[in-house]
Amino acid sequence: MKILQNSLQDCATLHNGVKMPWLGLGVWKMEDREEVIRAVKTALEIGYRHIDTAAIYKNEEGVGQAIKESGVPREEIFITTKVWNSDQGYETTLQAFETSLQKLGLDYVDLYLVHWPVKGKYKETYKALEKLYKEGRVRAIGVSNFQIHHLEDLMADCEIKPMVNQVEYHPRLSQKELHAFCKKHGIQLEAWSPLMQGKLLDDPTLIEIGKKYGKSPAQVILRWDLQNEVVTIPKSVKPHRIKENADLFDFELTAEDMEKIDALNKDERIGPDPDNFDF
């Protein structure tokens, strides 16, 4: 198996040719402006080039501010944001995008996602994303929290296939069927909550594998993501954690390690079920 990720700047190539860094910083639950600015600047200093936010996180301004202050050229950074459920629909999505862009202080976004598959709305929402894409306002478009049936439903009508599907993904929820479906259709899978919000960090299997390489359970999980060809965006505000989460490129899990981690799957979610959410 060819290892595709040897450094923090290595990228997955989306089906339209756009390059998306395999590892990024997620900023969910960072509502304090100073905290988000610090975290994003720290990540960019360490060498991260991929930041994932969303309208509902209420921190797009802080992310934009950090990018400005970082001194890293805009074109070197991959920025994702997402349209929230209450803004879904064609016109409202176009308006929501303008608001996000304004808050971020940017001219374009690298990836714009439909945050959840809101029944009866996500197709219209996605049509708005296609328009933004054709206009060059976003470099790539996609979805988040879509199951296979949502993707099939969307792809029956859309003009431009989603480039990314960002879902809850970790060793207890390895989503094998969804992953295979996305691969088959050239849709890049991306993991949110890759560390299951810390719930996996005392798992004996992960601790044992980590000991072999002098790595933490978190680093083992993130390496597993990468070797499964899943883009991953661990979230942290602590500088030492942001740095540790990026220290993944000097070791490689064996096929046996990968199988042991796969065996931890229990189809167990920490977030809402995409077939049954009410927000």
Automatic annotation (TrEMBL):
The record marks K82 as: Lowers pKa of active site Tyr. Transmembrane segments: none annotated. Substrate binds at H115. GO terms for molecular function: oxidoreductase activity, acting on the CH-OH group of donors, NAD or NADP as acceptor. Residues 23-265 form the NADP-dependent oxidoreductase domain. CDD domains: AKR_AKR5G1-3. Keywords: NADP, Oxidoreductase. It comes from the Bacteria. The active site is at Y57. PROSITE patterns: ALDOKETO_REDUCTASE_1 (PS00798), ALDOKETO_REDUCTASE_2 (PS00062), ALDOKETO_REDUCTASE_3 (PS00063). Belongs to the aldo/keto reductase family. This is Diketogulonate reductase-like aldo/keto reductase. It comes from Thermolongibacillus altinsuensis.
